[in-house]
Amino acid sequence: MAMGTRFFTGLIISLLVLATTNAQTVDSLPPISASKSYSNYSNVIGWKNGRTPKAPPGFTVTKYADGFKNPRWMYVTPNGDVLVAQSNSNYPLWKKIGAWFIGASKSKSFKNSSDLITLLRDVDKDGSPDERAVFLEKELDQPFGMLVLDDWFYVANTNGLLRFPYKPGQSQLSGKAEKITTLPAGKANRHWTRNITANKDGSKIYIAVGSGSNVGEKGAEAEFMKAAILEIDPDGSGLRIFASGLRNPVGMDWNPVTGDLWTAVNERDGLGNNLVPDYLTSVQENGFYGWPYVYYGQNEDPRVKWVPSAQVENTLVPDVNVGPHTASLGLTFYTGDSFPDKYRNGAFVVQHGSWNRQVLSGYKVVFVPFENGEQTGKPEDFLTGFIVDGKKDEVYGRPVGAAVLLDGSMLITDDVTNTIWRISWEGKNGM
């Protein structure tokens, strides 16, 4: 029996044992026939003449740093250094030519991955980095998620998890890499990012791995150990699937009140303007979230010809609808102490923006309010101003990831314009 077939068979058997006992409700979703599917690529024109994104009154948005090579993800070390992973898809020549013909090349970079991690250090604590260094440029292959745990720096390549000896305050890594596990990549690697986070006591590392395809059309073998959040011990032992059926989980963070793991997920394309909504959700151990068979509960995807009843019956419903085709990537719960009280312990979700919708969606950062660890309201716009003219499909930039600095301000990466933005609160406290 092929490895991928064993994986899917084992998953079905495990789901037969699971039972979802709590009643679940979902937002009303339109029928698949409500609209046709569109390819509509935005045109990124860049930020000129001092223009910046827009935040609510009382906040200030400034350029923190620029001059990168497709900055995708950030990590703030315990001593406050900011590490910036610069990476991209490695498209073959024929895809680059095709992207130019269909207009996709105006929406994103099609340069090969720079495979570089840059360190930014704010020595005088004035909200702007004074030092900049190449932190790591060896043994990287589409690096994304980063983590400092004990005396190690971990980085997730698209095809493996590495760790290097690390001391606080290092500006550049010099030790030898240790590959603690191989991660699934292969030819079908549509969602190449591999984010990582550790639990509170540092005993487990969690790895977000997106699907190799849109809806499983490449076959079971191509999706082995993908569309899932994996769990592993820090030494590389004990690799297992923690949760599955997550088409493209990227951002991950821990609910600061409950301690639960949450993730931001990109749902499937090709079912029309308003299907399927991306989502923010808590992640249950051994939970199954639908992909590729169903979405948002038990809504079947007609393109998937065989749907195992056990998975349909046990599919978990996501917690928060963040809109269709928004490409919600970044996620951080705000635990700083400089933003107004309403933001404390709430979630910021960074939306890279649509390509599969007639009217652009996403291209902003939204805030989801939480109290006592529970969502208390719908997502609300926080950082906007990325869209120039919706009728012309022009945008200034495309936000990707978020990180909170030790001073409580927040950074947002803008990959296509090679910029990092800083959002700080300058108003009255407690508002």
UniProtKB/TrEMBL annotation:
Residue stretches spanning the membrane: none
Origin superkingdom: Bacteria
InterPro entries: 6-blade_b-propeller_TolB-like (IPR011042), Glc/Sorbosone_DH (IPR012938), Quinoprot_gluc/sorb_DH_b-prop (IPR011041)
Cleaved signal peptide residues: 1-19
Descriptive protein name: L-sorbosone dehydrogenase
Segments forming domain Glucose/Sorbosone dehydrogenase: 162-349
Family matches, as PANTHER family: LARGE, MULTIFUNCTIONAL SECRETED PROTEIN, LARGE, MULTIFUNCTIONAL SECRETED PROTEIN-RELATED
Origin species: Flagellimonas olearia
Keyword Flavoprotein among record annotations: no
Keywords: Signal
